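Hey, I was hoping to borrow your eyes for a little while. I'm sending you its amino acid sequence along with the backbone structure tokens. Take your time with it, there's no hurry, and the full record follows here.
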Amino acid sequence: MQHYADNMRDFVEKHATGLAVALVAGVSALALRRWMSGGVCRSRVRLDGKTVLITGANCGIGKETALDMANRGAKVIMACRDMTKARIAADEIRQLSGNGNVVVKKLDLASLQSVRDLAKEVQENEERLDILINNAGIMFCPKWETQDGFEMQFGVNHLGHFLLTNTLLDLLKKSTPSRIVNVSSMAHEKGRIHFEDINLDKDYDPYTSYRQSKLANVLFSKELASRLKDTGVTVYSLHPGVIRTELGRHLFPTLAMWKRIVAAAVMTFVKSPWEGAQTTLHCAMDESLANSSGLYYSDCALKEPAPQALDDAAAKRLWDLSASMVGLA
């Protein structure tokens, strides 16, 4: 034993600098990972007797949000495009939560008719809607079009949710106090609304498109909150964080090999889907936000959005344009 101790002491003395560097690197990595994980929703509120609708709830932060709310006793409506994945996810959520009141509905946000069909079904079959979470999205895809001819990222991330929300407003008002949560992104900070070329037909870039759609989410929330003042329906937008989900599936194959290697290393530090869902849950349920509306959140805390997201005139102009595009009076 003494011989072993002497060898260890010699090893430490000879490699003191390397061991110190390794220790500092390890502690720094742990600290970085903890910082990246962000805030946690502290609300303990129960949702028994409440109905929640979540778009894109079959994977990622949408699935984690659905599981949390099922655990709290809510009826959870999972509005998804891929029904096979949605049914598998719903079965898992029922088993994990013990809540059998988890249902799957078809929703393709790239089709305005699909949005209208879902809204009609919900209006006809649900007595209430307490929380609407516009979570689904697409990121950095090629120049694709929705079934109605709109640029895909703007169409799915903004227009589809714009129409869905407006067609469910009467049910939300009937269920007050109720909440609408729009999942945006910090990408809005570099975005602008291309009113003169909303579908980016002249010069499409997947990054420009995504940033525009995420800015649209924040502006939509701002204008919607203004229009719903004193109705009992409150509105929130948020940045969920950088998360390990399927959302980046269109980006990764386009990267050079060295960028893929770097990205894979970085992904070990970003948020898990559970961590990414926390700000959504905070906005949807935290009691301290009951009298707030139209604001933007990140890491379960109020955050100032980019200056262009505070432009009242742009928010109203976007509303009018969106209503015209989706055929709302």
